[in-house]
Amino acid sequence: MKKLISILLTLVLILSVLPMAIQAHAEEVKDFDLPTIYFRGNGEDIVDEDGNVVYDFDVTTEQIKALAAKVLPELAVAMLAEKKAGPAAYDSYYKTFGEELGKLYERCQLDGNGNPKYGTTISAKNKADNEARRHENVADRNGKYGHMDYQFNNDWRLDPFDTVDAIDAYIDDVLKATGKQKVNLLCTCLGGDLVLAYIAKHGTAKINGIGFEQTVAFGAELIDETFSGHINLDPNAIQRFVQDDFLRKEMAGLGDLLFTFLNETVALLQDGGVLQGATDLIMEKLYAKLYEGLVPELVLATYGTWPGYWTMVTADHYASTRDFIFGQPGSEKYEKYKGLIAKLDHYDAAVRQRIPALLQQAKADGHPVAISVYYGEQMPPILESADEQGDVWTTVRYASLGATAAKIGNTLSDDYIADRTAKGYGAYISPDKIIDASTGLFPDTTWFVKGAIHNDKGVGIHRVFSPVFNSNATVQTSALPQFLVHNRTDLTLSPMTEDNMTTEKFDTSAPKTGLFDRLYNFLKHLLSWFSTLFNLIKNR
Questions:
Q1: Measured between alpha carbons, how far is 314 from 295 in angstroms, rounded to an integer?
Q2: How far is residue 11 from each of residues 3, 24, 25, 163, 401, measured CA to CA in Å?
Q3: 387-393: Cβ within 8 A, 24+ apart
Q4: In the chain, what is the greatest distance between 2 CA atoms, to the nearest angstrom?
Q5: How far apart are CA 423 and CA 418, in angstroms?
Q6: Range of 44-58, 65-79, 168-182 with top mean pLDDT
Q7: Rounded CA separation 229/469 (Å)
Q8: Kind of pairing, strands 183-189 and 36-39?
Q9: Whole-model pTM?
Q10: Neighbouring C-beta atoms of residue 368, cutoff 10 Å
Q11: What's the alpha-carbon Rg for the chain, to the nearest Å?
């Protein structure tokens, strides 16, 4: 009897341990069939609690004219009074400028604590779509989950930490709907700040892989340099900008003739030294005098009350930029925005200063991290970074977390390439000799796409993320190599080769045209433009 009891107890013990052993084994087997939650960047209309759009990216020409009519007289008075009153002569101008510009953006500004003045919600359509999709098991025809099964919509103006608990609840709903234990997180543009803040607060227990598709959450010069007042007018950058296909695309409705005329006009001014003189005059005589009072008013009247946009300020510049915009503790402006500043400081300490450490820890814990970077475009010609490789919003350096890139119009030097190759990093040099991926934080899971700008749709680079998430693929084992080229015409993505690697539309290496030839071209295109206008009027 005792032996029978002993046998029964042994069986019970074995049966009780068996499920745990099976479960432990199951956890070791990677589940490749996982849903992905997508975090988009800014761009979605922001809707208040009553359903009214509070920001739709439209400031009309008439509104700008009205603003100019009010602030320019103030500027003229200040310039006349400067000799007697000194810098204080401009105080009234700064105040008027901030107040009048703020009226155009008042509905979308946040208050001094970084909270919406008129409440916030996502659009009714997006909210309904989200609710429907996250409570059902979404599978494609193959029974596999796609790259964008669920989209988390949010008010991208807000402090990411105001949203992370909602993200955690959303993930729980997706896991419940799909019966899975983990999700993949994929973000683009500004959506990266949400993913980083989520990891900082909630960790990675519910996450499998993390993908950053051209994110600005690691830093974006378009915001970093404008918020900090690091503005510069570079004549060479201006000339490249009007030569580039990006501007031609923006001016498509005006026709190639006007574009060419503008190109020749800028080239004439540049070769004649006029453009350099004009930019020097603006920067030295006007901007250098006004920026300390003007830029903070400009920033706070528009996007400077949005913690979401502050996440794009870089780790190196955050403290100095904060002090530049808000002043020192105890000042009137600092006290007005004290609650907002507390949110900005918290994000800086919890996320911005820890981005490499957060992602390295995630990878060490078994969560693959994939990154895509666009390049081949210069930054806007008003920025100090105008000669760096980027996608118009952010440079390669920040988007890739440290990859090395040659300046616009240049390649990495032969000595640099030889040195990196001798050290075993030659495979990380792009065929066009512009990028060295090896200096980035994750060189084996970072892909580079040339010829795409930040807002380009249909690039399709996200398809390399799935193999990374599912099988720890790298640039060495993926079907798509590390360096790719995007064709904007047919939206194809191809491996970079010597035949397709030259996508730049400006020629910085060509010798300058003589001034006589430049003047001739200018007059020729001017006459062509007038002829076109005459024929349009005659045929009406």
A1: 18
A2: 12, 20, 21, 50, 55
A3: 387/234, 387/236, 387/237, 388/221, 389/434, 389/435, 390/221, 391/214, 391/452, 391/453, 391/454, 392/222, 392/246, 392/453, 392/454, 392/455, 393/189, 393/216, 393/220, 393/221, 393/222, 393/454
A4: 115
A5: 9
A6: 168-182
A7: 40
A8: parallel
A9: 0.81
A10: 22
A11: 27
Q: H or E element: which one contains 435?
A: strand 435-436
- Two tokens, residue 416: 């640099």
Helices (H) and strands (E) in the chain, counts: 21, 14
Q: Which of 59-68, 86-95, 222-231, 411-420 has the highest mean pLDDT?
A: 411-420
Q: Which amino acid is at 234?
A: D
Question: By the 8 A CB rule, do 313 and 321 touch?
Answer: yes
Helix, strand, coil shares of the chain, percent, nearest 5, are: 50, 10, 35
Phi, psi at 510, each rounded to 5°: -70, 145
Q: Residue 27 carries which side chain, given as an amino acid letter?
A: E
| pLDDT bracket for residue 71 (50, 70, 90) | confident
**∠ CA 121-127-128, rounded to 5°:** 145
266's tokens = 């800028």
Q: Where do the structural domains in the chain lie, given as residue ranges? A: 54-106
- Phi first, then psi, for residue 480 (nearest 5°) are -105, 130
